[in-house]
Write a structure and sequence with these properties.
Length: 175
C-alpha cells in the first residue's frame, strides 16, 4: 500500500501524538489499568523520553497525506540473555482507518527502516490486537511466540502477554 508513509516524528509534533495517545490509552484501559491525572487525562510515563533519548524513536503514520496513527519504538536489552532488540512499545491507528491494510504497511516500513531483532507484545485480553498481530506477523520469516507474564506482574491475569520475536533474515552470502 504505497499511500502509507511512516515518518520520524519531530519534537514539534509531540503534541499531536500526545492527543492521539489519549485515544489510544482510552482503548488500552479496557484491558489493563491506566493511570490518570486529577482532570481525567491518561498518563503515559515515558512520553517525553521519546524526544529526549537517543534510544527511543517516535513515528507518525500517514495515509494519503492524512495523519492516521503513530508508533513508538525503543531499544532494549534482555537482562538475562543480553540480547539487544527493538521493542514496539506502542502502535496505534485511528478507528476510521483500521482494517484497510494501513497498520500492516506501516509496520512493514518500520521493520525495513530498522532491521534488527524485534519484540512485539500484546495483552491476552486484547483479542482484536492479538488477531491483528497474528495476521501481520504470520507471513514474516523468523517469528517465534511466547505467552508470559511481565516480570513485575506474575499473578495478574490482565497482564498476560503474547510476545512475538522477529529475527532478521540473513542476506544470502555470495557463493
Amino acid at each position: 500500500m504505497n499511500s502509507v508513509r511512516l515518518v520520524s516524528a519531530q519534537a514539534e509534533q509531540a503534541g499531536l501524538i500526545k492527543m492521539m495517545m489519549q485515544r489510544y490509552l482510552a482503548e488500552f484501559a479496557e484491558f489493563t489499568d491506566v493511570e490518570t491525572t486529577v482532570d481525567g487525562q491518561f498518563i503515559y510515563l515515558y512520553f517525553d523520553h521519546y524526544w529526549q533519548s537517543t534510544d527511543r524513536y517516535p513515528y507518525i503514520i500517514f495515509f494519503q497525506d492524512q495523519i492516521v496513527g503513530f508508533c513508538l519504538v525503543r531499544d532494549d536489552q534482555d537482562p538475562v540473555k543480553g540480547l539487544r532488540y527493538k521493542e514496539l512499545a506502542e502502535f496505534f491507528i485511528e478507528e476510521p482507518y483500521r482494517r484497510q491494510g494501513i497498520g500492516e504497511a506501516a509496520f512493514s516500513q518500520l521493520i525495513n527502516l530498522q532491521p534488527d531483532v524485534w519484540r512485539v507484545s500484546v495483552l491476552e485480553a486484547n483479542r482484536v490486537g492479538r488477531d491483528f498481530w497474528n495476521k501481520v506477523l504470520a507471513p514474516l520469516a523468523g517469528i517465534s511466540k511466547e505467552v508470559q507474564f511481565p516480570a513485575d506482574q506474575k499473578s495478574n491475569i490482565r497482564s498476560l502477554e503474547h510476545v512475538y520475536w522477529l529475527k532478521p533474515v540473513a542476506e544470502p552470502q555470495p557463493g
